[in-house]
Design goal:
The complex is a heterodimer of chains A (about 350) and B (about 240). Chain A is mostly helical. Chain A has a domain at about 45-270. Chain A has twelve helices and four strands, in the order H-H-H-H-H-H-E-E-E-H-H-H-E-H-H-H. Chain B has a single domain (about 5-240), classed as P-loop containing nucleotide triphosphate hydrolases (Rossmann fold). In chain B, strands 6-7-8-3-9-10 form a six-stranded mixed β-sheet, sandwiched between helices. In chain B, strands 2-1-4-5 form a four-stranded antiparallel β-sheet, covered by helices on one side. In chain B, helix 3 (about 95-105) runs parallel beside helix 6 (about 140-150) and helix 6 (about 140-150) packs parallel to helix 7 (about 170-185). Classes of the chains: A mainly alpha (about 350), B alpha/beta (about 240). At the A-B interface, helix 8 of A face helix 2, helix 3, helix 4, helix 5 and helix 6 of B.
Protein backbone atom coordinates (compact mmCIF):
# COMPACT_ATOMS: atom_id res chain seq x y z
CA UNK A 1 0.00 0.00 0.00
CA UNK A 2 1.27 3.44 -0.82
CA UNK A 3 2.09 6.18 1.66
CA UNK A 4 -0.35 8.90 2.55
CA UNK A 5 -0.63 11.47 -0.22
CA UNK A 6 0.11 15.17 -0.05
CA UNK A 7 -3.41 16.46 0.40
CA UNK A 8 -3.51 18.36 3.71
CA UNK A 9 -7.10 18.80 4.84
CA UNK A 10 -8.24 21.64 7.05
CA UNK A 11 -11.51 22.26 8.81
CA UNK A 12 -13.49 25.15 7.42
CA UNK A 13 -14.59 27.45 10.24
CA UNK A 14 -18.28 27.04 10.95
CA UNK A 15 -19.75 30.50 11.37
CA UNK A 16 -22.12 31.45 14.16
CA UNK A 17 -24.94 31.78 11.64
CA UNK A 18 -24.27 28.27 10.35
CA UNK A 19 -24.37 26.94 13.91
CA UNK A 20 -27.61 28.82 14.60
CA UNK A 21 -29.15 27.63 11.35
CA UNK A 22 -30.14 24.26 12.80
CA UNK A 23 -30.78 25.53 16.33
CA UNK A 24 -33.15 28.32 15.32
CA UNK A 25 -36.22 26.11 14.76
CA UNK A 26 -35.70 24.55 18.22
CA UNK A 27 -35.48 28.02 19.73
CA UNK A 28 -38.89 28.84 18.28
CA UNK A 29 -40.55 26.67 20.94
CA UNK A 30 -39.25 28.57 24.01
CA UNK A 31 -39.79 31.79 22.08
CA UNK A 32 -43.45 30.92 21.50
CA UNK A 33 -43.83 29.88 25.14
CA UNK A 34 -42.44 33.23 26.32
CA UNK A 35 -44.63 35.16 23.88
CA UNK A 36 -47.58 33.10 25.15
CA UNK A 37 -46.78 34.09 28.74
CA UNK A 38 -46.51 37.78 27.83
CA UNK A 39 -49.73 37.70 25.82
CA UNK A 40 -51.77 35.70 28.34
CA UNK A 41 -50.46 37.46 31.39
CA UNK A 42 -51.92 35.05 33.94
CA UNK A 43 -49.21 32.43 34.77
CA UNK A 44 -51.65 29.73 35.90
CA UNK A 45 -53.73 29.96 32.71
CA UNK A 46 -50.51 30.07 30.71
CA UNK A 47 -49.16 26.92 32.39
CA UNK A 48 -52.41 25.05 31.84
CA UNK A 49 -52.47 26.06 28.18
CA UNK A 50 -48.80 25.23 27.73
CA UNK A 51 -49.21 21.68 29.04
CA UNK A 52 -52.32 21.29 26.94
CA UNK A 53 -50.44 22.55 23.88
CA UNK A 54 -47.50 20.25 24.51
CA UNK A 55 -49.86 17.27 24.95
CA UNK A 56 -51.64 18.10 21.72
CA UNK A 57 -48.31 18.54 19.95
CA UNK A 58 -46.98 15.20 21.19
CA UNK A 59 -50.08 13.40 19.92
CA UNK A 60 -49.87 15.10 16.54
CA UNK A 61 -46.20 14.12 16.39
CA UNK A 62 -47.12 10.46 16.98
CA UNK A 63 -49.48 10.64 14.03
CA UNK A 64 -47.14 12.65 11.78
CA UNK A 65 -43.80 10.89 12.33
CA UNK A 66 -44.61 7.87 10.17
CA UNK A 67 -46.11 10.02 7.46
CA UNK A 68 -43.00 12.15 7.09
CA UNK A 69 -40.66 9.12 6.98
CA UNK A 70 -42.80 7.37 4.38
CA UNK A 71 -42.74 10.46 2.21
CA UNK A 72 -39.01 10.92 2.70
CA UNK A 73 -38.12 7.30 1.98
CA UNK A 74 -40.19 6.55 -1.07
CA UNK A 75 -41.65 9.88 -2.14
CA UNK A 76 -45.10 8.50 -1.39
CA UNK A 77 -47.88 10.95 -0.49
CA UNK A 78 -50.25 8.82 1.54
CA UNK A 79 -53.54 10.63 2.02
CA UNK A 80 -54.83 7.40 3.53
CA UNK A 81 -52.66 7.88 6.62
CA UNK A 82 -55.73 9.18 8.45
CA UNK A 83 -57.32 5.74 8.15
CA UNK A 84 -54.70 4.32 10.52
CA UNK A 85 -55.50 7.07 13.04
CA UNK A 86 -59.23 6.30 12.96
CA UNK A 87 -58.82 2.53 13.06
CA UNK A 88 -56.32 2.80 15.92
CA UNK A 89 -58.76 4.97 17.84
CA UNK A 90 -61.69 2.59 17.39
CA UNK A 91 -59.63 -0.49 18.19
CA UNK A 92 -58.17 1.19 21.27
CA UNK A 93 -61.56 2.35 22.48
CA UNK A 94 -62.97 -1.17 22.00
CA UNK A 95 -60.12 -2.61 24.07
CA UNK A 96 -60.71 -0.01 26.77
CA UNK A 97 -64.40 -0.91 26.82
CA UNK A 98 -63.47 -4.59 27.06
CA UNK A 99 -61.15 -3.79 29.96
CA UNK A 100 -63.96 -1.86 31.67
CA UNK A 101 -63.21 -3.28 35.10
CA UNK A 102 -59.63 -2.00 34.83
CA UNK A 103 -60.57 1.46 33.58
CA UNK A 104 -63.23 1.88 36.23
CA UNK A 105 -61.01 0.67 39.07
CA UNK A 106 -59.49 3.45 41.22
CA UNK A 107 -56.03 2.08 40.54
CA UNK A 108 -53.51 4.11 38.54
CA UNK A 109 -51.60 0.95 37.64
CA UNK A 110 -54.66 -0.83 36.24
CA UNK A 111 -55.75 2.31 34.41
CA UNK A 112 -52.36 2.83 32.80
CA UNK A 113 -52.17 -0.87 31.94
CA UNK A 114 -55.55 -0.59 30.23
CA UNK A 115 -54.31 2.37 28.17
CA UNK A 116 -51.11 0.47 27.43
CA UNK A 117 -53.01 -2.58 26.14
CA UNK A 118 -55.33 -0.33 24.14
CA UNK A 119 -52.27 1.35 22.62
CA UNK A 120 -50.61 -1.98 21.79
CA UNK A 121 -53.80 -3.30 20.18
CA UNK A 122 -54.25 -0.06 18.22
CA UNK A 123 -50.65 -0.22 17.01
CA UNK A 124 -50.99 -3.89 16.07
CA UNK A 125 -54.17 -3.51 14.04
CA UNK A 126 -53.14 -0.21 12.44
CA UNK A 127 -49.74 -1.68 11.58
CA UNK A 128 -51.41 -4.69 10.00
CA UNK A 129 -53.76 -2.42 8.08
CA UNK A 130 -50.74 -0.38 6.99
CA UNK A 131 -49.06 -3.50 5.64
CA UNK A 132 -52.14 -4.39 3.59
CA UNK A 133 -52.60 -0.78 2.49
CA UNK A 134 -49.03 -0.63 1.22
CA UNK A 135 -49.30 -3.92 -0.65
CA UNK A 136 -52.68 -3.31 -2.26
CA UNK A 137 -52.99 0.46 -2.65
CA UNK A 138 -49.59 2.14 -2.52
CA UNK A 139 -47.35 -0.36 -4.27
CA UNK A 140 -48.98 -0.10 -7.71
CA UNK A 141 -48.59 3.68 -7.80
CA UNK A 142 -44.96 4.26 -6.87
CA UNK A 143 -43.57 7.34 -8.60
CA UNK A 144 -47.00 8.66 -9.66
CA UNK A 145 -48.02 11.42 -7.25
CA UNK A 146 -51.41 12.20 -8.76
CA UNK A 147 -52.42 8.55 -8.72
CA UNK A 148 -51.10 8.23 -5.16
CA UNK A 149 -53.33 11.06 -4.00
CA UNK A 150 -56.38 9.62 -5.73
CA UNK A 151 -56.01 5.99 -4.68
CA UNK A 152 -54.90 6.68 -1.11
CA UNK A 153 -57.86 9.03 -0.63
CA UNK A 154 -60.03 6.28 -2.05
CA UNK A 155 -58.49 3.87 0.43
CA UNK A 156 -59.24 6.29 3.26
CA UNK A 157 -62.92 6.45 2.24
CA UNK A 158 -63.14 2.66 2.08
CA UNK A 159 -61.62 2.28 5.55
CA UNK A 160 -63.95 4.93 6.98
CA UNK A 161 -66.94 3.09 5.57
CA UNK A 162 -65.61 -0.18 7.02
CA UNK A 163 -65.49 1.54 10.42
CA UNK A 164 -69.15 2.49 9.98
CA UNK A 165 -69.93 -1.15 9.17
CA UNK A 166 -68.06 -2.54 12.19
CA UNK A 167 -68.65 0.11 14.87
CA UNK A 168 -71.77 1.79 13.53
CA UNK A 169 -72.32 5.22 11.98
CA UNK A 170 -72.45 7.28 15.17
CA UNK A 171 -69.71 8.91 17.13
CA UNK A 172 -68.77 7.11 20.32
CA UNK A 173 -68.26 9.06 23.51
CA UNK A 174 -65.76 7.56 25.90
CA UNK A 175 -64.78 7.95 29.50
CA UNK A 176 -61.15 8.23 30.44
CA UNK A 177 -59.89 5.66 32.93
CA UNK A 178 -60.81 6.58 36.48
CA UNK A 179 -57.45 7.81 37.72
CA UNK A 180 -56.79 9.76 34.52
CA UNK A 181 -59.92 11.83 34.92
CA UNK A 182 -59.80 15.32 36.35
CA UNK A 183 -56.82 17.52 36.98
CA UNK A 184 -53.91 17.92 39.29
CA UNK A 185 -54.09 21.29 40.97
CA UNK A 186 -51.39 23.21 42.72
CA UNK A 187 -52.28 26.72 43.70
CA UNK A 188 -54.32 28.26 40.93
CA UNK A 189 -52.89 25.91 38.31
CA UNK A 190 -54.96 22.98 37.09
CA UNK A 191 -53.39 20.47 34.72
CA UNK A 192 -55.42 17.59 33.34
CA UNK A 193 -53.89 14.26 34.32
CA UNK A 194 -54.38 12.72 30.89
CA UNK A 195 -52.47 15.57 29.27
CA UNK A 196 -49.49 14.85 31.48
CA UNK A 197 -49.68 11.21 30.38
CA UNK A 198 -49.85 12.33 26.74
CA UNK A 199 -46.76 14.53 27.19
CA UNK A 200 -44.91 11.64 28.81
CA UNK A 201 -45.89 9.19 26.05
CA UNK A 202 -44.95 11.70 23.36
CA UNK A 203 -41.56 12.35 24.92
CA UNK A 204 -40.84 8.64 25.30
CA UNK A 205 -41.85 8.10 21.69
CA UNK A 206 -39.63 10.91 20.43
CA UNK A 207 -36.62 9.76 22.44
CA UNK A 208 -37.16 6.16 21.32
CA UNK A 209 -37.40 7.22 17.68
CA UNK A 210 -34.27 9.35 18.01
CA UNK A 211 -32.39 6.43 19.55
CA UNK A 212 -33.51 4.04 16.83
CA UNK A 213 -32.72 6.50 14.05
CA UNK A 214 -29.38 7.68 15.46
CA UNK A 215 -27.96 4.64 17.20
CA UNK A 216 -29.03 1.59 15.21
CA UNK A 217 -28.04 0.30 11.80
CA UNK A 218 -31.65 0.16 10.65
CA UNK A 219 -32.05 3.79 11.73
CA UNK A 220 -28.95 4.69 9.78
CA UNK A 221 -30.36 2.95 6.70
CA UNK A 222 -33.69 4.78 7.07
CA UNK A 223 -31.97 8.17 7.43
CA UNK A 224 -29.76 7.45 4.44
CA UNK A 225 -32.74 6.15 2.46
CA UNK A 226 -34.70 9.33 3.07
CA UNK A 227 -31.83 11.22 1.47
CA UNK A 228 -30.79 8.93 -1.36
CA UNK A 229 -32.63 5.63 -1.70
CA UNK A 230 -30.80 4.62 -4.84
CA UNK A 231 -27.43 4.82 -3.11
CA UNK A 232 -28.69 2.80 -0.16
CA UNK A 233 -29.55 0.07 -2.64
CA UNK A 234 -26.14 0.42 -4.25
CA UNK A 235 -24.61 -0.30 -0.85
CA UNK A 236 -26.47 -3.60 -0.82
CA UNK A 237 -29.59 -2.92 1.23
CA UNK A 238 -33.09 -3.88 0.16
CA UNK A 239 -34.76 -0.49 0.36
CA UNK A 240 -38.14 -2.00 -0.41
CA UNK A 241 -38.08 -4.04 2.81
CA UNK A 242 -36.94 -0.99 4.76
CA UNK A 243 -39.80 0.98 3.28
CA UNK A 244 -42.41 -1.67 4.12
CA UNK A 245 -41.08 -1.81 7.68
CA UNK A 246 -41.21 1.98 7.97
CA UNK A 247 -44.72 2.07 6.51
CA UNK A 248 -45.93 -0.50 9.03
CA UNK A 249 -44.21 1.31 11.92
CA UNK A 250 -45.62 4.65 10.75
CA UNK A 251 -49.14 3.17 10.53
CA UNK A 252 -48.77 1.67 13.99
CA UNK A 253 -47.66 5.02 15.44
CA UNK A 254 -50.65 6.70 13.77
CA UNK A 255 -52.85 4.10 15.46
CA UNK A 256 -51.27 4.88 18.82
CA UNK A 257 -51.75 8.58 18.19
CA UNK A 258 -55.38 7.83 17.28
CA UNK A 259 -56.25 6.08 20.52
CA UNK A 260 -54.51 8.75 22.61
CA UNK A 261 -56.24 11.47 20.62
CA UNK A 262 -59.59 9.73 21.21
CA UNK A 263 -58.89 9.78 24.96
CA UNK A 264 -57.79 13.40 24.70
CA UNK A 265 -61.03 14.41 22.94
CA UNK A 266 -63.17 11.79 24.74
CA UNK A 267 -64.95 10.94 21.50
CA UNK A 268 -64.21 8.89 18.38
CA UNK A 269 -65.60 9.28 14.88
CA UNK A 270 -64.77 7.50 11.63
CA UNK A 271 -63.70 10.82 10.13
CA UNK A 272 -61.35 11.82 12.94
CA UNK A 273 -58.29 10.61 11.07
CA UNK A 274 -59.26 12.56 7.99
CA UNK A 275 -59.71 15.72 10.08
CA UNK A 276 -56.39 15.19 11.86
CA UNK A 277 -54.60 14.92 8.52
CA UNK A 278 -54.91 18.68 8.08
CA UNK A 279 -52.76 19.19 11.18
CA UNK A 280 -50.48 16.30 10.19
CA UNK A 281 -49.85 17.90 6.80
CA UNK A 282 -49.13 21.28 8.37
CA UNK A 283 -46.69 19.71 10.83
CA UNK A 284 -44.89 17.67 8.18
CA UNK A 285 -44.63 20.58 5.76
CA UNK A 286 -43.35 23.12 8.27
CA UNK A 287 -41.00 20.56 9.79
CA UNK A 288 -39.46 19.70 6.42
CA UNK A 289 -40.59 16.65 4.46
CA UNK A 290 -38.82 13.53 5.70
CA UNK A 291 -37.52 15.09 8.92
CA UNK A 292 -38.58 13.47 12.21
CA UNK A 293 -36.98 16.25 14.28
CA UNK A 294 -38.71 18.82 12.11
CA UNK A 295 -42.07 17.08 12.60
CA UNK A 296 -41.51 17.07 16.38
CA UNK A 297 -40.75 20.79 16.51
CA UNK A 298 -43.58 21.54 14.09
CA UNK A 299 -46.08 19.51 16.15
CA UNK A 300 -45.16 21.31 19.36
CA UNK A 301 -45.44 24.70 17.67
CA UNK A 302 -48.84 23.80 16.23
CA UNK A 303 -50.13 22.47 19.56
CA UNK A 304 -48.90 25.44 21.59
CA UNK A 305 -50.02 28.09 19.11
CA UNK A 306 -53.50 26.61 18.73
CA UNK A 307 -54.02 26.54 22.51
CA UNK A 308 -52.70 30.05 23.10
CA UNK A 309 -54.68 31.57 20.24
CA UNK A 310 -57.87 29.69 21.19
CA UNK A 311 -57.59 31.27 24.64
CA UNK A 312 -56.72 34.77 23.45
CA UNK A 313 -58.88 35.04 20.34
CA UNK A 314 -61.02 31.93 19.78
CA UNK A 315 -62.10 32.94 16.28
CA UNK A 316 -58.49 33.10 15.13
CA UNK A 317 -57.65 29.61 16.40
CA UNK A 318 -58.91 28.01 13.21
CA UNK A 319 -56.50 29.91 11.02
CA UNK A 320 -53.59 30.17 13.45
CA UNK A 321 -51.88 27.05 12.12
CA UNK A 322 -52.29 28.07 8.51
CA UNK A 323 -50.75 31.40 9.50
CA UNK A 324 -47.88 29.58 11.20
CA UNK A 325 -47.30 27.44 8.11
CA UNK A 326 -47.33 30.50 5.86
CA UNK A 327 -44.86 32.35 8.07
CA UNK A 328 -42.48 29.40 8.30
CA UNK A 329 -42.60 28.69 4.58
CA UNK A 330 -41.86 32.35 3.85
CA UNK A 331 -38.85 32.01 6.15
CA UNK A 332 -37.77 28.55 5.03
CA UNK A 333 -39.56 27.35 1.89
CA UNK A 334 -38.31 23.77 2.39
CA UNK A 335 -39.52 23.65 6.00
CA UNK A 336 -37.57 24.17 9.22
CA UNK A 337 -35.23 21.16 9.05
CA UNK A 338 -35.40 19.92 5.48
CA UNK A 339 -33.75 16.67 4.50
CA UNK A 340 -31.32 17.31 1.67
CA UNK A 341 -32.51 14.97 -1.04
CA UNK A 342 -30.17 13.62 -3.68
CA UNK A 343 -30.89 15.04 -7.12
CA UNK B 1 -10.13 -13.94 -22.79
CA UNK B 2 -10.56 -16.62 -20.15
CA UNK B 3 -13.32 -16.38 -17.58
CA UNK B 4 -13.91 -12.62 -17.31
CA UNK B 5 -15.37 -11.30 -14.06
CA UNK B 6 -18.10 -9.51 -16.04
CA UNK B 7 -19.61 -10.15 -19.44
CA UNK B 8 -22.27 -8.01 -21.11
CA UNK B 9 -23.92 -9.60 -24.13
CA UNK B 10 -26.10 -7.56 -26.46
CA UNK B 11 -27.25 -5.24 -23.68
CA UNK B 12 -30.08 -2.84 -24.53
CA UNK B 13 -31.27 -0.26 -21.99
CA UNK B 14 -33.97 2.33 -22.50
CA UNK B 15 -34.59 5.43 -20.41
CA UNK B 16 -38.17 6.52 -21.02
CA UNK B 17 -38.53 6.68 -24.82
CA UNK B 18 -34.78 6.92 -25.40
CA UNK B 19 -32.83 3.85 -26.50
CA UNK B 20 -29.54 4.54 -24.75
CA UNK B 21 -27.70 1.23 -24.91
CA UNK B 22 -28.06 -0.47 -28.25
CA UNK B 23 -26.40 -3.84 -27.90
CA UNK B 24 -23.38 -3.45 -25.62
CA UNK B 25 -20.94 -6.35 -25.73
CA UNK B 26 -18.16 -6.10 -23.17
CA UNK B 27 -15.88 -8.33 -21.16
CA UNK B 28 -14.05 -7.14 -18.04
CA UNK B 29 -11.02 -9.32 -17.23
CA UNK B 30 -10.31 -10.38 -13.66
CA UNK B 31 -7.68 -8.41 -11.77
CA UNK B 32 -7.43 -5.66 -14.36
CA UNK B 33 -8.53 -2.07 -14.68
CA UNK B 34 -10.77 -1.70 -17.71
CA UNK B 35 -11.33 1.86 -18.85
CA UNK B 36 -14.67 2.69 -20.41
CA UNK B 37 -14.06 5.68 -22.65
CA UNK B 38 -16.10 7.73 -25.06
CA UNK B 39 -17.58 11.12 -25.63
CA UNK B 40 -20.26 12.59 -23.41
CA UNK B 41 -23.68 11.05 -23.86
CA UNK B 42 -22.61 7.83 -25.56
CA UNK B 43 -23.93 5.60 -22.75
CA UNK B 44 -21.02 5.04 -20.34
CA UNK B 45 -22.94 5.95 -17.19
CA UNK B 46 -25.98 4.03 -18.42
CA UNK B 47 -23.77 0.98 -18.90
CA UNK B 48 -22.57 1.17 -15.29
CA UNK B 49 -26.09 1.79 -13.98
CA UNK B 50 -27.37 -1.15 -15.97
CA UNK B 51 -24.63 -3.39 -14.59
CA UNK B 52 -25.41 -2.47 -10.97
CA UNK B 53 -29.14 -2.73 -11.68
CA UNK B 54 -30.42 0.83 -11.24
CA UNK B 55 -31.77 0.52 -14.75
CA UNK B 56 -33.12 -2.77 -15.97
CA UNK B 57 -31.91 -3.87 -19.38
CA UNK B 58 -34.64 -4.34 -21.98
CA UNK B 59 -32.67 -7.08 -23.69
CA UNK B 60 -29.34 -8.83 -23.44
CA UNK B 61 -27.60 -10.40 -20.48
CA UNK B 62 -25.18 -9.56 -17.68
CA UNK B 63 -23.01 -12.39 -16.44
CA UNK B 64 -21.11 -11.67 -13.25
CA UNK B 65 -18.59 -14.11 -11.82
CA UNK B 66 -20.12 -16.90 -13.87
CA UNK B 67 -23.75 -16.24 -12.87
CA UNK B 68 -26.50 -14.50 -14.82
CA UNK B 69 -27.49 -11.43 -12.79
CA UNK B 70 -29.59 -9.70 -15.46
CA UNK B 71 -32.85 -10.00 -13.55
CA UNK B 72 -31.46 -9.61 -10.04
CA UNK B 73 -32.21 -6.54 -7.90
CA UNK B 74 -29.42 -4.12 -7.01
CA UNK B 75 -28.91 -5.47 -3.49
CA UNK B 76 -28.36 -9.02 -4.80
CA UNK B 77 -25.75 -7.83 -7.28
CA UNK B 78 -23.93 -6.00 -4.49
CA UNK B 79 -24.15 -9.10 -2.32
CA UNK B 80 -22.65 -11.07 -5.20
CA UNK B 81 -19.59 -8.78 -5.07
CA UNK B 82 -20.17 -5.61 -7.08
CA UNK B 83 -19.34 -2.19 -5.69
CA UNK B 84 -20.53 1.02 -7.31
CA UNK B 85 -19.48 4.66 -7.13
CA UNK B 86 -21.92 6.86 -9.05
CA UNK B 87 -20.96 9.95 -10.99
CA UNK B 88 -22.71 12.19 -8.42
CA UNK B 89 -20.83 10.38 -5.61
CA UNK B 90 -24.05 9.48 -3.75
CA UNK B 91 -22.82 10.92 -0.46
CA UNK B 92 -25.34 11.06 2.38
CA UNK B 93 -24.73 14.68 3.27
CA UNK B 94 -26.83 14.66 6.46
CA UNK B 95 -24.80 11.75 7.88
CA UNK B 96 -21.30 11.99 9.27
CA UNK B 97 -18.28 10.59 7.47
CA UNK B 98 -18.26 7.76 10.00
CA UNK B 99 -21.92 6.98 9.38
CA UNK B 100 -21.36 6.98 5.63
CA UNK B 101 -18.55 4.49 6.10
CA UNK B 102 -20.49 2.38 8.58
CA UNK B 103 -23.30 2.02 6.06
CA UNK B 104 -20.82 0.78 3.48
CA UNK B 105 -19.78 -2.09 5.74
CA UNK B 106 -22.89 -4.09 4.98
CA UNK B 107 -21.84 -7.35 6.51
CA UNK B 108 -20.76 -6.04 9.93
CA UNK B 109 -18.54 -3.50 11.66
CA UNK B 110 -15.78 -1.77 9.71
CA UNK B 111 -12.62 -3.84 9.47
CA UNK B 112 -9.91 -2.00 11.43
CA UNK B 113 -7.04 -2.94 9.10
CA UNK B 114 -9.03 -1.95 6.05
CA UNK B 115 -9.97 1.32 7.67
CA UNK B 116 -6.30 2.08 8.36
CA UNK B 117 -5.56 1.40 4.71
CA UNK B 118 -8.36 3.80 3.70
CA UNK B 119 -7.05 6.47 6.10
CA UNK B 120 -3.62 6.00 4.55
CA UNK B 121 -5.06 6.68 1.12
CA UNK B 122 -7.39 9.48 2.26
CA UNK B 123 -6.08 11.15 5.45
CA UNK B 124 -8.77 13.83 5.14
CA UNK B 125 -11.39 11.27 6.11
CA UNK B 126 -9.68 10.61 9.42
CA UNK B 127 -9.60 14.35 10.12
CA UNK B 128 -13.28 14.73 9.31
CA UNK B 129 -14.43 11.40 10.75
CA UNK B 130 -17.12 12.90 12.98
CA UNK B 131 -18.08 15.75 10.65
CA UNK B 132 -21.24 15.91 8.57
CA UNK B 133 -20.40 14.78 5.05
CA UNK B 134 -22.34 17.72 3.65
CA UNK B 135 -19.66 20.05 5.04
CA UNK B 136 -16.85 18.37 3.08
CA UNK B 137 -15.36 19.94 -0.02
CA UNK B 138 -16.10 18.42 -3.44
CA UNK B 139 -12.79 16.59 -3.46
CA UNK B 140 -13.25 15.24 0.05
CA UNK B 141 -16.73 14.03 -0.87
CA UNK B 142 -15.25 12.20 -3.83
CA UNK B 143 -12.64 10.62 -1.53
CA UNK B 144 -15.44 9.50 0.75
CA UNK B 145 -17.35 7.98 -2.15
CA UNK B 146 -14.31 5.95 -3.18
CA UNK B 147 -13.47 5.08 0.43
CA UNK B 148 -17.01 3.82 0.93
CA UNK B 149 -16.71 1.31 -1.89
CA UNK B 150 -13.31 0.28 -0.50
CA UNK B 151 -14.79 -0.42 2.95
CA UNK B 152 -15.45 -4.02 1.95
CA UNK B 153 -13.61 -6.22 -0.47
CA UNK B 154 -15.47 -6.47 -3.78
CA UNK B 155 -15.02 -8.70 -6.76
CA UNK B 156 -15.69 -5.83 -9.16
CA UNK B 157 -15.58 -2.09 -8.65
CA UNK B 158 -17.73 0.05 -10.95
CA UNK B 159 -16.51 3.64 -10.69
CA UNK B 160 -17.99 6.51 -12.65
CA UNK B 161 -15.74 9.51 -13.31
CA UNK B 162 -13.96 9.72 -9.95
CA UNK B 163 -11.77 12.68 -10.96
CA UNK B 164 -14.45 14.80 -12.56
CA UNK B 165 -14.07 18.48 -11.65
CA UNK B 166 -11.33 17.88 -9.09
CA UNK B 167 -8.21 19.94 -8.49
CA UNK B 168 -4.94 18.32 -9.67
CA UNK B 169 -3.80 17.54 -6.10
CA UNK B 170 -6.99 15.64 -5.40
CA UNK B 171 -6.83 13.88 -8.78
CA UNK B 172 -3.38 12.69 -7.77
CA UNK B 173 -4.73 11.43 -4.41
CA UNK B 174 -7.55 9.65 -6.19
CA UNK B 175 -5.21 8.06 -8.74
CA UNK B 176 -2.96 6.74 -5.99
CA UNK B 177 -5.91 5.23 -4.16
CA UNK B 178 -7.15 3.53 -7.32
CA UNK B 179 -3.63 2.28 -8.04
CA UNK B 180 -3.56 0.83 -4.52
CA UNK B 181 -6.79 -0.96 -5.25
CA UNK B 182 -5.39 -2.21 -8.55
CA UNK B 183 -2.20 -3.48 -6.90
CA UNK B 184 -4.35 -5.55 -4.59
CA UNK B 185 -5.63 -7.39 -7.61
CA UNK B 186 -9.05 -5.78 -7.81
CA UNK B 187 -11.11 -5.88 -10.98
CA UNK B 188 -12.24 -2.37 -11.88
CA UNK B 189 -14.46 -0.98 -14.59
CA UNK B 190 -13.69 2.72 -14.65
CA UNK B 191 -15.39 5.48 -16.59
CA UNK B 192 -12.91 8.31 -16.88
CA UNK B 193 -12.66 11.49 -18.96
CA UNK B 194 -9.20 12.39 -17.70
CA UNK B 195 -7.00 10.60 -20.23
CA UNK B 196 -3.84 11.01 -18.18
CA UNK B 197 -5.49 9.11 -15.35
CA UNK B 198 -6.94 6.60 -17.79
CA UNK B 199 -3.56 5.98 -19.35
CA UNK B 200 -1.85 5.62 -15.98
CA UNK B 201 -4.36 3.21 -14.51
CA UNK B 202 -5.89 1.30 -17.39
CA UNK B 203 -4.87 -2.15 -18.52
CA UNK B 204 -7.53 -2.57 -21.13
CA UNK B 205 -9.93 -0.20 -22.83
CA UNK B 206 -13.41 -0.27 -24.24
CA UNK B 207 -14.54 2.72 -26.28
CA UNK B 208 -18.21 3.50 -26.64
CA UNK B 209 -20.14 5.43 -29.24
CA UNK B 210 -23.88 5.68 -29.83
CA UNK B 211 -24.73 3.14 -27.16
CA UNK B 212 -22.35 0.45 -28.38
CA UNK B 213 -18.79 -0.67 -27.77
CA UNK B 214 -16.92 0.27 -30.92
CA UNK B 215 -13.40 -0.79 -29.96
CA UNK B 216 -11.70 -2.89 -27.31
CA UNK B 217 -8.02 -3.50 -26.77
CA UNK B 218 -4.99 -2.80 -24.61
CA UNK B 219 -4.53 0.67 -23.11
CA UNK B 220 -0.95 0.79 -24.35
CA UNK B 221 -2.12 0.20 -27.90
CA UNK B 222 -4.63 3.07 -27.76
CA UNK B 223 -2.28 5.39 -25.90
CA UNK B 224 0.38 5.05 -28.59
CA UNK B 225 -1.89 5.43 -31.57
CA UNK B 226 -3.07 9.04 -32.00
CA UNK B 227 -4.83 8.29 -35.23
CA UNK B 228 -6.85 5.58 -33.53
CA UNK B 229 -7.71 7.92 -30.67
CA UNK B 230 -8.98 10.54 -33.07
CA UNK B 231 -10.86 7.97 -35.05
CA UNK B 232 -12.58 6.52 -31.96
CA UNK B 233 -13.15 9.58 -29.82
CA UNK B 234 -12.73 12.49 -32.15
CA UNK B 235 -9.69 13.81 -30.27
CA UNK B 236 -6.23 12.87 -29.22
CA UNK B 237 -5.47 11.80 -25.65
CA UNK B 238 -2.59 14.25 -25.63
CA UNK B 239 -4.83 17.29 -25.68
CA UNK B 240 -6.07 16.37 -22.19
Amino acid sequence: MSAAPDHNPTFAEVTLMQRLDKALPVLLIPLLVVIGLLAIGNPSSWLTLTVSGLAMGMLIFAMASGFTLVFGLMDVINFGHGAFISVGAFVGVSVLAWLGTWTEAPSLMLNVLAVLFAGIAAMGISGLLGWGFERVIVQPVYGAHLKQILVTMGGLIVVEQMIHVIWGPNEIFINRPEMLKGAITFGAVAIEKFRLLAVAVGLILFVAMRLVLKRTKIGLIVRAGVQNGEMVQALGYRLRLVFIGTFIAGSALAGLGGVLWALYQEVVTAGMGEHMMVLVFIVVIIGGLGSVEGAFIGALLVGLLQNYVAFLEPKLALISNIGLMTAILLWRPQGMLPVVKAK
Amino acid sequence: MSDPILRLSGLYTDIAQYHILQGVDLEVPRGQVTMLLGRNGVGKTTTLRSIIGHWQARAGSITFDGADVTALPVASRVKAGMGYVPEDMGIFTDLTVEENMRLAARSGPLDAARLEWIFGAFPALKTFWGAEAGNLSGGQKQMLSIARVMAEERKLYLIDEPTKGLAPAIVSTMSRALRDLKEQGASILLVEQNFAVARALGDSVAVMDDGKIIWTGEMAELAENKALQEQLMGLSMEVH
